[in-house]
Amino acid sequence: MTVENQAPESKFAFVVIAARRARQLMSGAMPLVANPRSHKPTRVAVEELGAGVLEYQLPLTPAEIEDAMNRRNCDKNATVPA
Fold this sequence. Notes:
Blueprint: E1 3-4, H1 11-26, H2 41-51, E2 56-57, H3 62-77
Antiparallel strand pairs: 1-2
Helix pairs in contact: 1-2
């Protein structure tokens, strides 16, 4: 997985990431933007995500997991020449 800091292209991923960050803000985390335009946690989270100051990791897709498993199996089955 790679760490991203750009807003995701998927609207679903955007909402999930913003919601998780809003929960962190409601629990007492400090905003990552200097002067947030709003005091509402959801608005601050969206602003942080849009500004690119929020880092996140997206989970692997099933295809990526399968590719990783295939590469791992190929590495195990590789023979070393004598």
